[in-house]
Amino acid sequence: DTGVSQNPRHKITKRGQNVTFRCDPISEHNRLYWYRQTLGQGPEFLTYFQNEAQLEKSRLLSDRFSAERPKGSFSTLEIQRTEQGDSAMYLCASSHGTGPRYEQYFGPGTRLTVT
Amino acid sequence: AQSVTQLDSQVPVFEEAPVELRCNYSSSVSVYLFWYVQYPNQGLQLLLKYLSGSTLVKGINGFEAEFNKSQTSFHLRKPSVHISDTAEYFCAAKHQGAQKLVFGQGTRLTINP
Fold first, then answer.
1. Which of A9, A91, A106, A110 to mutate to test the interface with B (most CBs of B within 10 A)?
2. Alpha carbon distance B66, B35 (integer Å)
3. For labelling alongside A79, which of A31, A60, A114, A115 has CA 20 to 30 A away?
4. Whether B100 and A42 lie within 8 Å, measured CB to CB
5. In chain A, % of residues over pLDDT 70
6. Which residue of A has its CA nearest to B43?
7. pLDDT by residue (tens digit) across A58-82?
């Protein structure tokens, strides 16, 4: 068990460019979550997958954001036409189940800076 | 709507002193409560959680928290802190049946020698 991994760890992009982040959950974890954390704030929920199905999306996830989880394994989060307000830490988490006894394990995050 | 409030953005304490990090939640339905720690350049790690039963919950690294339903609080405590406890601490809540965690704003714990 190597934990949740995220790539890249850091990304600097110019406003208007598209970026894509990858999350590899703990193997056999069928639930995968994306959160966004801005400076000085706690993480905010973005979206959630059960296997390959995206079951919930936050209103924070504008039309410029899209997330996928093909084959129920790794997940990608793409941001199109980035804006400076997209600068944040993007966190991925995975869990074995959905009940409260199933801990969400977090990855180290991808820090996005939009210049 | 569910919300979580951490009353202190920063808490400085001396090494070996006790510490309490405060957390209040608001919810009209049953909630589960969590404390996470985030060390620099690392992901969030679960310290402890309250699901049901005993209101005093013990976690890792000597931390404990007490669930107080009447005061809607879930404060985190440690009787004697170490330099290695320097980190950001997040309180989080989850509605019964919901998937997402709702986090507070975080409290930065700084340990002075």
1. A106
2. 11
3. A31
4. no
5. 97
6. A108
7. 988 889 999 999 988 999 999 999 9
